[in-house]
Specification:
CATH topology of the largest domain in chain A: Hypothetical Protein Tm841, Chain: A,domain 3
CATH architecture of the largest domain in chain B: Alpha Horseshoe
Structural class of chain B: alpha/beta
Radius of gyration of chain B: 25 Å
CATH superfamily of the largest domain in chain B: DhaL domain
Structural class of chain A: alpha/beta
Oligomer: heterodimer
Mean pLDDT of chain A: 91
Low-confidence stretches of chain A: none
Number of domains of chain B: 4
CATH architecture of the largest domain in chain A: 2-Layer Sandwich
Radius of gyration of chain A: 18 Å
CATH class of the largest domain in chain A: Alpha Beta
Strand order of the largest sheet of chain A: 10-9-8-13-11-12
Shape of chain A: globular
Number of strands of chain A: 13
Largest sheet of chain B: 6 strands, mixed
Strand content of chain B: 15-25%
Number of helices of chain B: 19
Strand order of the largest sheet of chain B: 13-12-9-16-14-15
Number of strands of chain B: 16
């Protein structure tokens, strides 16, 4: 008898609405707090474009928050009813309390019907794991095959982002190196890379223009691609330009995605990056 | 001071005297060489560099009594290589390296052997440069060497050979402005070539019995394994007198019937120490350390006219030196770097901090005003435990020295990334930072750093030391000038106009990032105002202001 698998995500995955709808993915929102209020990052409470525009001039810097366990619990319970198995793929425990909320929130579920995965990645880096998990689940109805696909994607994916400023990463306090070293001394446009739940500096570059060139180099280093998302924080022009420059290496599955406010608060506006999955993952 | 040198052969002792005479005459004339410095930036240091180089060479044999000329020549070459500073100093050291090769295993040399050694010396010097430029010290050296080769076929009197070499070298020196446009425009002969002519001239003067101001050479401080970075003061020395270091007094006495022996004895009676008295009955050079300088001066004035008077308070110098050393040690406590390390050169506390912050394992103090020697590089190399090292000179006058140091190192792999300016060096350091973090090896890091050199254009703002028309720009002495990538781009009366005009030439309106490193005599407020003016004139660029602390250049600017 086929197993009905439901995929659950958190909003940091930055999944576009049409993908959420196509694969019927459940999304638990994270939160952004500022001006004494808390806004769910669900695409409704916050106007994302306005948020980025206002971000540099906000009187107090916003903070971000994981969904509370009760919210995770409520959403997980609701979807458990219509499914045989829940697979939740979420923001890394090293960077956020979201994983813990999903762990606590799902503790009442039957253990053999709920699998929680620390994606080790962010934005569409996590998003591609979810998309491929949903595709595999729909095609195979097999929990084992779906989890295996996610593991293979993890081994064949990259997420890089060039930051237009170090300021927001520094303020966020979640990345130790951002406040120290050369970046504290010189004006630097870092390219950050997410590897197994850690934000690393892949390159430190003096100008954003050169950083974008380097990003494109990184894309081309990946070899044949299966999927590519060009991600940005209110830098749609830059994203389009990058898609144009890279058109000779683009896979069929390509999209431009605006990073949500939760992650965007730590990156700041103007950033540009990509999340890729190489064709190797299918091998 | 006339030396009877047998005219047909020269042994180790005589060669030592010749080297000493060349050095003394170069020292006597080094300021003249400095003044010939053609480039309109205040780095008039060719003479100083060559003198430092040659003095270090002589220090290897100062206390050596050796009859074997091949061995003496080898020591001279060794010292020159280690002491080489600046481009001319480095080429000079290569000339002596070539001579030493040509004289290897020779107990004495005659005219023909000297000719052969000159041939090797020319070859060696030319090989030291990737692109030898005519109209420089190289051309003068070749002329002298070729003259030796020619004349030695028919002449075996060494004095005559040297005289012909000198005359030919002087002639070649006079023609350098025909070969190098920059010299013609400035109306000078090549400074390095002039330095070499003085060395040969000193040797000839010795043979002819002409006075050569000879000083007893003080040895440079022994190599203690610690790099000494600032001149010749050996502050490990205890003062010789209980009253401390006292005063260093030097003067020339012009008079009649002067007696060197009597003057020396009289100075000893005054309780002077480190006494050096040389000269003849009409001209005597006195050098003495005393606790009361007035005693020596009063004495000297009774004997004749005093000239070239120098009185220095060595106790104060000593104390300042100690204080400086302490500060330096505090500043220069470098964290250890794993794997491939970078040794670089910078002047100014801010620029040094940038270099350290970007991961340099060692920053040698120096730059435009003080070119470090090959030995400074070697000491830095030996002071760190890393075996794979990149040298980053940050000045076009230091690149050759760095390359030479790299060749001299044993047991370590050393490469040179030829950065010509500090902004280039900072670009290269970023590439290093990135590649090092990825665990790249020496070759990869060297390649990445070299590739990064042209990521930034460099503007240097300074004051012209001479009137000149160059690169289409006319400059009066004392005017402010702007150099773009080592080329004169603008001149004017105020910093503001020169900075803006040079930025204009650099195409600043298309730049993404402009960084102002302000010098030690510029206040931060002034630099911020300058940054604001740049933002206004060139649009929405990011303009970063950083304290460089460098001397001579109010602003060093990178345009990226």
């Amino acid at each position: 008898m086929p197993t009905k698998i439901k995929i659950v995500a958190d909003s940091v995955a930055d999944l576009p609405q049409d993908i959420i709808d196509r694969y019927d993915i459940a999304v638990v929102p994270c939160f952004v707090n500022y001006d004494g209020q808390s806004f769910a990052d669900d695409g409704k409470e916050l106007d994302r474009e306005m948020y980025y525009k206002n971000l540099p001039t906000m009187s107090t810097h916003p903070t971000t928050a994981a969904p509370p366990p009760a919210l995770a619990e409520e959403i997980l319970n609701r979807h458990m009813e219509g499914a045989d198995h829940l697979i939740a793929i979420v923001t890394p425990a090293k960077l956020s309390a979201t994983y813990n909320s999903f762990r606590v929130g799902g503790s009442g579920l039957p253990a053999n019907r709920y699998t929680l995965i620390d994606s080790g990645n962010l934005s569409m880096g996590m998003g591609w794991q979810i998309v491929i998990a949903a595709e595999t689940a729909a095609a195979t109805n097999s929990v084992e095959a779906t989890l295996d696909a996610v593991q293979r994607v993890r081994k064949n994916q990259k997420l890089y982002c060039a930051l237009a400023t170090m300021e927001f990463l520094r303020r966020s306090g979640r990345v130790g190196w951002a406040a120290a070293g050369i970046g504290a001394l010189l004006q630097i446009k870092p390219i950050v890379e997410v590897v197994e739940g850690e934000v690393k500096a892949a390159a430190r570059i003096r100008t954003f223009g050169k950083a974008v060139e380097k990003l494109q180099e990184f894309v081309r280093e990946q070899g044949k691609l299966d999927k590519l998302a060009i991600v940005h924080t209110n830098n749609e022009d830059g994203a389009r330009e990058m898609r144009e420059t890279l058109k000779d290496v683009l896979p069929k599955d390509v999209m431009i995605v605006r990073v949500g406010p939760t992650l965007g608060t730590h990156i700041g506006p103007g950033g540009l990056g990509f999340a890729s999955v190489s064709a190797q993952w299918k091998a | 001071m006339v030396l009877e040198v047998s005219r047909r052969v020269c042994d180790g002792h005589k060669f030592k005297y010749l080297v000493h005479a060349g050095l003394a005459w170069l020292e006597h004339n080094k300021e003249r060489v400095n003044q010939l410095n053609v480039y309109p930036v205040p780095d008039g240091d060719t003479g100083t560099n060559m003198w430092h180089t040659f003095r270090r060479a002589y220090s290897e044999i100062a206390e050596v009594e050796e009859a074997h000329v091949g061995k003496v020549a080898e020591l001279v070459a060794k010292g020159a290589l280690r002491g080489a500073r600046g481009n001319s100093g480095t080429i000079l050291s290569e000339i002596f390296r070539g001579l030493a090769r040509g004289l290897k295993d020779r107990e004495v040399f005659d005219a023909r052997t000297l000719a052969y050694a000159c041939k090797i010396a020319i070859e060696t010097a030319y090989q030291a440069l990737e692109k030898p430029v005519e109209g420089t010290i190289l051309t003068v050296a070749r002329a002298a060497g070729e003259a030796a080769i020619r004349i030695a076929q028919e002449e075996n009197d060494l004095q005559v050979v040297l005289e012909v070499m000198l005359a030919t070298a002087q002639d070649a020196l006079r023609r350098t402005p025909d070969q190098l446009e920059i010299l013609r425009k400035a109306g000078v002969v090549d400074s390095g070539g002039q330095g070499l002519v003085y060395i040969i001239e000193g040797m000839v003067r010795l043979l002819q019995g002409e006075p050569v101001m000879m000083f007893e050479m003080e040895r440079e401080p022994a190599n203690t394994g610690q790099p000494h970075l600032d001149g010749t003061w050996d502050d490990m020395l205890e003062p010789e007198s209980e009253e401390g270091y006292g005063y260093d007094v030097q003067f020339l006495i012009k008079g009649e019937n002067l007696s060197v022996q009597q003057i020396r004895k009289d100075l000893e009676d005054m309780q002077g120490w480190s006494i050096v008295v040389i000269g003849d009955e009409n001209l005597v050079k006195v050098h003495v350390h005393l606790s009361d300088p007035g005693v020596a001066l009063t004495y000297g004035v009774k004997l004749g006219q005093l000239d070239d008077l120098v009185v220095e308070n060595m106790q104060l110098q000593y104390e300042a030196q100690i204080a400086k050393r302490v500060r330096k040690e505090e500043e220069e406590a470098f964290p250890e770097v794993e794997g491939v390390a970078v040794i670089t050169v910078a002047a100014g506390d801010g620029l040094k901090r940038v270099m350290r912050g970007s991961g340099a394992a060692y920053v040698i103090s120096g730059g435009q005003t003080m070119n470090p020697s090959a030995e400074d590089f070697l000491n830095a190399i030996n002071s760190i435990s890393n075996t794979d090292i990149v040298l980053l000179p940050n000045n076009s006058n230091i690149i050759l020295t760095a390359k030479q140091a790299a060749k001299l190192v044993e047991g370590k792999r050393v490469t040179v990334v030829p950065s010509r300016t500090l902004p280039q060096g900072i670009s290269a350091m970023l590439a290093y930072y990135n590649a090092h973090e990825m665990g790249a090896d020496l070759d990869e890091i060297t390649r990445d750093m070299t590739d990064a050199l042209n990521n930034a254009r460099t503007i240097e703002i300074t004051t012209s030391t001479r009137a000149i028309t160059l690169d289409g720009v006319t400059v009066a002495e004392g005017q402010i000038i702007g150099l773009l990538d080592d080329k004169l781009a603008a001149s004017g009366e105020t910093l503001e106009e020169v900075v803006e005009n040079t930025l204009e030439v650099a195409g600043a309106e298309d730049a993404e990032l402009i960084t102002l490193y302000f010098g030690w005599d510029v206040r931060e407020q002034q630099a911020n105002k300058m940054a604001e003016a740049i933002r206004e004139r060139f649009g929405t660029h990011e303009v970063q202001v950083m304290r460089g602390g460098q001397p001579l250049y109010p602003y060093i600017i990178s345009v990226e």
